[in-house]
Amino acid sequence: MRSSTWLLIACCTSLLVACGADLPAAEAVPEPHLATTSAALVTVTRFASNGKAVDVGWADELTQGFALAAIDTSNGVSTGFLTATQVNFDPASQVCTADPVLGTYCHYARVWYDAIYANFNPSDLKIGANTASLKVDLATATNLTFTRCLYDEAAATTTCGDLANPGSINLTWRKTTTDYTKYKGTTETKTGPHTVRVSGSRNSFSADVSGTVVGTALAHKGGQIGTSNTITIDIMRTP
Q1: For 7-32, how does the pLDDT look when each residue is reduced to its tens digit (9 = 90+)?
Q2: Contact between 2 and 181 (Cβ < 8 Å)
Q3: Fewest C-beta in 10 Å: which of 19, 55, 94, 198?
Q4: Could you list the residue range(s) of the whole structural domain that residue 46 is in?
Q5: Closest CA to 190 of 18, 31, 16
Q6: Is pTM, for the whole model, over 0.85?
């Protein structure tokens, strides 16, 4: 299983909080004998990435799931990454208990847990201003891992195995006006002669999602379209 660079970038651009937004401001530790203006600094290393992403979540009485797909373009090279998880309850395993205080409550004694990770061709994910679509045949995906685990309460066992080809994902997103998030910011941290500057932005919009995820049909589920996720990391020093 291979993790995607985009996930690290999402951590940073998830509004740069994880990358230093909570650090003390640079002026809290001034060094009066060194130049303090950005113009006096020279970049020695730069990492630049641009990405787009979509996600969707769903739940009903017997199923719960989440899927995310992203394109990361780092230093001119694009990579597609997706992850999907789903929990399926066995309706035949429902057990109900009568409690004199709580009343009757029920749960399922057999549960399947699916987890999928894969890289896909970036052209399989198309994101526009108002819509997005993802069409991936997982038989052609690379670095595919599909693990299914069965939890059986009666037997007190959990059994897991890998499946070679879980099927395909075919989803469509349509932007709604119910929610959106916009962020843009820069943080700068100085340690000794080096200054690390992290700049990033993100625009994401709520969306209505329909389609199929490895055999599970979705209709009008809630999701997001991330129209832009960018991050630039400059490591600079005083000449």
Answers
A1: 333 333 333 333 333 333 333 333 33
A2: no
A3: 94
A4: 5-237
A5: 31
A6: no
